[in-house]
UniProtKB/TrEMBL annotation:
Protein name: Dephospho-CoA kinase
Family to which the UniProt record says this protein belongs: Belongs to the CoaE family.
UniProt-annotated location(s): Cytoplasm
Organism, scientific name: Simiduia agarivorans (strain DSM 21679 / JCM 13881 / BCRC 17597 / SA1)
Catalysed reaction equations from the record: 3'-dephospho-CoA + ATP = ADP + CoA + H(+)
Gene that this sequence comes from: coaE
UniProt xrefs under Gene3D superfamilies: P-loop containing nucleotide triphosphate hydrolases
PANTHER family, A to Z: BIFUNCTIONAL COENZYME A SYNTHASE-RELATED, DEPHOSPHO-COA KINASE-RELATED
Biological processes annotated in GO: coenzyme A biosynthetic process
Length: 197
C-alpha cells in the first residue's frame, strides 16, 4: 500500500482547495466526508440503524438521509452524538482503510478528513498535513461559502480540536491565511518534499 499522508484542518480552512492542488499533481485523494456519505447511502444497514433509532422521519422521500436534521439532533444532545459516532466511526474507518489499501503505484496518497485528529482515523496515516488559518478567517470563509451564521460556524469549530492542539500534532503546515495562489505554491513545494522523503 502506498504511504498515506493525512490532510486536515478545521471548517473552512481550505482542505478541499489544498486537496484539489494535490490531485492536479496526480496524487490520489480519499475524501473521508465522501466515505461518511457513502456508508449511509439508501438501502445501507447504517441508514436503517439510524432510522430505527432516530425515527423514519430522518429519511427523505428520495430515500436519502436528511443530514441537516440529523446534525441538528446530535449537536443539541451529547448522548445522541455518542450513539451516532459509535455506529458510524468504525464503519467509516474500515471503508477508508479498504480504499487506501487499493493504492499501490503512488509515491504517496492523501486522506482528506476534517476529523482526522479527533477520531481513530489518525491511526491510518503515516504523517499529518494541517491546513492552518486563524479562527476569524475560518468564520469569514465558512459563513460566506455555506450561508452559515457566525454562531453556526463557531458551534462547529467548538466541536473540533483547537488550532493549537492541531498545530502540535502536525508534521507539515500549509498556511492558508493568504491568497489562493500562495496555497497552491505551498502545496507544490510540499509535494516535492514528500517525493524526496
Ligand atoms: N486562500 C484563500 N483565500 C480566499 N478564499 C479561500 C482561500 N482558500 C479557500 N478559500 C475559500 O474558503 C472556503 C473554504 O475552503 P475549502 O472548502 O477548501 O475548505 P475546507 O477546509 O475543505 O472546508 P470544510 O471542512 O468546511 O468543507 C471556500 O469557499 C474556498 O473557496
Amino acid at each position: 500500500m502506498s504511504r498515506v499522508i493525512g490532510l486536515t484542518g478545521g471548517i473552512g480552512s481550505g482542505k478541499s482547495s489544498a486537496a484539489a492542488h494535490f490531485r492536479a499533481l496526480g496524487i490520489r485523494v480519499t475524501d473521508a466526508d465522501q466515505v461518511a456519505r457513502q456508508v449511509v447511502q439508501p438501502g445501507s444497514p447504517a441508514l436503517q440503524a439510524i432510522a430505527d433509532h432516530f425515527g423514519e422521519a430522518l429519511i427523505q422521500s428520495d430515500g436519502q438521509l436528511d443530514r441537516a436534521a440529523l446534525r441538528a439532533i446530535v449537536f443539541a444532545d451529547t448522548a445522541e452524538k455518542h450513539f451516532l459516532e459509535t455506529l458510524l466511526h468504525p464503519l467509516i474507518r474500515t471503508t477508508i482503510a479498504e480504499t487506501l489499501a487499493q493504492a499501490h503505484d503512488q509515491p504517496y496518497q492523501l486522506l482528506e478528513s476534517p476529523l482526522l485528529l479527533e477520531t481513530d482515523q489518525k491511526a491510518l496515516v503515516d504523517a499529518v498535513i494541517l491546513v492552518d488559518v486563524s479562527p476569524d478567517t475560518q468564520i469569514a470563509r465558512a459563513s460566506r461559502r455555506d450561508n452559515n451564521t457566525k454562531a453556526q460556524v463557531e458551534a462547529i469549530m467548538a466541536s473540533q480540536m483547537s488550532r493549537a492542539d492541531k498545530l502540535a500534532l502536525a508534521d507539515f503546515v500549509l498556511d492558508n491565511e493568504g491568497k489562493p495562489e500562495q496555497l497552491k505554491q505551498q502545496v507544490e513545494a510540499l509535494h516535492l518534499k514528500l517525493l524526496a522523503s
